[in-house]
Design goal:
Length: about 375
């Protein structure tokens, strides 16, 4: 689908498992995205959601059958997958979307607005390389979604002439001259004869870059399917982005009373959500206020400690003044420092004691470790030389 929407699509978008619709909706406004196509799968079937950004609606289609691009290309003898055709947006062709219901109007506007509009008078025919065909089947109420390549070839030319006007010259080694090649039998294949006719023949208003297609000349328009192909059915239409009032449902038809009841329940849920949001904002405000008060009290505590330290310094200055007043001489700073120091607390003899059990009682006994000769010499102050 991304290749189909080229060039106005996010072809390199990477989707992770934890991404939700809100992530893409929030980023859509930055990149000027107008529509979002999402595929979801349930246990029974596959769904495609077309979302109009930023306010909806959301159209959900149930996919009945599909064919991938690679499968369609593999089934073709000559696939037409020129890279240059994806440089321009495709043309939208819609058929049988003429119902009277509201769902037909929404589907028509959604599909038309997904692709850029064209001006018929000023459009360059060389840019119309692809088309998206949407056919509504009224009998089964399904939509056939097809992606095709547009090819324009001149009409009234034989097969040898068409080969000559191409860039590659055919092999004519088996002919005596050019006249024999031009007048041979089987100049036109049966398939080409069936494809060309009044239904697909047009008069070109412009000259095309392809060979043989000149202005005011007749050419045949041929379409080759390049995939993907979808057969889908409209399942439901929601007012918002995947969450809103259901405007249409293919399985359930609700009465006016049920619709009013659902609207009332939705309003109640919205009101409850608003109350919770206000309560949360109030809690956040109170939490910030408590935090500011705690920071203010901690700053006051620090200022009190700072004042106490200044008071202690002032007390030391008062001691110096008192000493000078009584003695008549300024005190020595070392004397006051020593006087202010606390006296060392004596804990008795610092002898090591060993605890051991004897007769079920614990006794303390002075450890008498026998001194080695080396230690005896150290006590006497003798020097030991080796």
């Amino acid at each position: 689908m991304r290749r189909l929407m080229e060039p106005f699509t996010a072809s390199r978008l990477k989707v992770r498992k934890n991404n939700v619709i809100k992530d893409f909706v929030s980023a859509a406004g930055v990149f000027s995205v107008s529509h979002l196509v999402a595929f979801t799968q349930s246990e029974t079937t596959l769904y495609m959601k077309l979302i109009r950004i930023p306010r909806g609606p959301t159209l959900t289609f149930r996919i009945c059958s599909y064919s991938l691009t690679r499968d369609i290309i593999a089934s073709l003898k000559t696939p037409h997958m020129e890279p240059k055709q994806f440089l321009y947006h495709p043309l939208v062709v819609m058929n049988n979307f003429s119902g009277k219901g509201m769902e037909f109007k929404l589907m028509t506007s959604m599909f038309q607005n997904m692709f850029p509009s064209i001006n018929v008078e000023k459009v360059d025919l060389n840019h119309l390389r692809r088309c998206v065909v949407l056919n509504y089947n009224a009998e089964y109420q399904t939509i056939e979604f097809t992606h095709c390549n547009i090819q324009v070839s001149p009409v009234g030319l034989s097969k040898p002439v068409k080969k000559l006007i191409k860039a590659k010259v055919p092999d004519m080694s088996s002919y005596a001259d050019i006249a024999e090649y031009m007048t041979r039998d089987g100049n036109l294949s049966e398939s080409e004869g069936e494809m060309d006719g009044p239904a697909n023949e047009v008069t070109l208003p412009q000259k095309l870059t392809s060979r043989g297609n000149v202005e005011a000349g007749k050419s045949a328009i041929r379409m080759h399917e390049i995939g993907p192909r979808l057969v889908m059915k409209l399942h439901k239409i929601e007012e918002g982005i995947c969450d809103g009032e259901i405007l249409f449902h293919d399985l359930f038809n609700k009465t006016d009373e049920e619709i009013l009841k659902l609207k009332k329940e939705k309003e109640e849920r919205q009101q409850l959500k608003e109350e919770r949001r206000k309560r949360q904002e109030e809690n956040v405000r109170l939490k910030d206020a408590r935090k500011r008060r705690s920071e203010k009290s901690s700053s006051n505590t620090k200022s009190v400690k700072r004042d106490e330290s200044h008071t202690a310094l002032d007390t030391s200055d008062d001691d110096d003044d008192y000493f000078e007043k009584e003695v008549g001489v300024k005190p020595d700073p070392d004397i006051l420092k020593k006087a202010r120091k606390r006296p060392a607390v004596s804990h008795g003899n610092n002898r090591r004691f060993k605890k051991f059990k004897q007769g079920g009682s614990v006794e303390k006994k002075e450890s008498k470790t026998p001194a080695t000769p080396f230690k005896k010499h150290l006590r006497k102050g003798k020097n030991i030389r080796h």
